[in-house]
Amino acid sequence: MSRLRLMGLYALLFIPHLLCAQHSDIIAIKNALPQITDSVGYADALNRLSSLYLPRQLDSSGVYARRAKELSERIRYNKGQSDALRAMGRYYVLRPHRYLSFLFYDNALAACRAAGDSAGVTVSLMNIGTFYQYQQKHAEAQSYINRALKVAWDMRLDSLRIWVLASYYLINESDSVALPIAQKGLQQAIALAYRYHDELGVLYTRLFAANEQLRAGEVKKAEQNLEGVIAAADSAGLNYIAMYACLQLTGYRIWQQQPDSVQYQRKSVNYAVAGGYAGLILPVITGLYNRYRQLGDSLQAGSYSRLALGVMMQQQEDMQAGEADYLSYAFGDEWLDSLQQQNQSQKQQLAMNKAANHFWYYQLLIIAAIALLLIILVIYFVRAYRLTRKNTASMAALQEEIRLGNKALRDSDDFKNKLISMIAHDFRTPLYNIVNITGFIDEKSLTVGEAANMISEVEHTAAGTLVIFEEILRWIRTQLSGFVYRPEIFLLEEMISNTVKSLQHLLTGKEIRIITEIPANATVAADYEMLQFIHRNFLHNAIKFSPDHGSITVKATRNNGWLTVAFTDEGSGIDAAMLPYLFSWNRSAIERERAGKGAGLALIICKDFIDKMNGQINAENNADEGCTFYYRLPERLEEV
Fold this sequence. Notes:
With 640 residues, the chain is an alpha+beta fold. Helices cover 73% and strands 7% of the residues.
């Protein structure tokens, strides 16, 4: 079985038994929502809609899951929170974003245990087990699925046993030793699905039954079984089941070297697009694009190329929306491990102190047997009092260390969350331009001259993006590994000249004139790379927001051993609401209201560099038009 089909079947196991409801249930719940006044009932209805939409339309399922999560957290409804966390986990599995899905499933398991929800615990254990199997960690997967089976049997959750047994089959079907037990479990799952009239469970177990028919050499029966699944799923609007039945049938056709495998690949893509699951079958879309491009069918190749581009853009948006959660999860684990090691070390130290205390205690007993009883009792009480004060002080110090560690963890998480959001924002436009330009070139819709110009533009864009990435990486290293500032003296006019040369292609494209008003032999005490980063960003922003045929003025003035360097453009100026937050992390709400107009991560790095060089940085709107960005640094090392 191919890796793509395995991924699809693993993802199917994340759908709970509640998804067998008909389309009429969705309509009835949506019509009843406006009349529900109880917040708990409303949260349950949102979770129910998320489950019903999951095998039909992924985006709608995600919307209702988020709404249910927000409402349940607001009203502190524990069961609603655990159901919503599982729904979010299912959503990210099908996106696909497996790390976030595991994070939500792990939180859902904890919430279900706290709420005493046995069914929720069973589903969460099953989900985590199949997740580990997809990561090729069979031992962990076996452990979780066995625990899920035990809970389902102990609590007599017969309807859930369909999915737990199917999970057990999927985890063990490639293990020759466990295969006979897995096959018996599959037969029990099929019987339970028919007994409980679980529509989705019946269709799902038929996919595995087809696999067993193929194993037995009954190829025709397996294909007819899958054709029936596709027809039933299509009739019920279950786009997800239909998509993976088409993929499974494609695998059978390719194995038999049948020419109609492409037909089922195209059908699987159609079902994926209709249900919002295209991210799961991006390799299939790419394969169809390559096939039609080799056949010279530019119309079909172009349609699959655009579809693949849309999927990649969607995945980039998902990463931006969810990467903060992932970074918080990944980096939080590292900090927690560090704190746990620190806590273990402190426990060992306390144990040693306790042993030492016992030693002195027994010494005092020996002395008490020899010395006068009254004197020894006084000494004992004095020592006990001092020991109590010492332990109290130690505990206070330990609590303070834990508090500072927690604060550092929160600050680090906040820094990483904002950092990834800003990097994704600043890199999206140049990367999208590169993809867009290469798409035009690939479709061969340009002349040789136009293609050459676009290739040149791709080169400039890629080089600029690489420079930005290297500079951000350097800045991150100064944040994480420590930084020692060693200023040197540089000629300002020479630095500005080098900056203008690096951006000459942008100046030429907009026919912008640079006016420099720098005193002769003006110097500045700074770090060269840091200051050039600031020059490039100030000049780049001025070019970006200046009109064609305009001018940009770079002016330097001296004052008491300090040099002020200003970049003035003739653009539209800076939004007054955004101006106070240009160099601050805390501007996410302002930037959401001004989509596409944020200054990006670069200005924040500029502020950090200037702070490290003991200077000042600011920006202001001009009286007539445009704006001015400027910084202030010492001319000589003596002023640093």
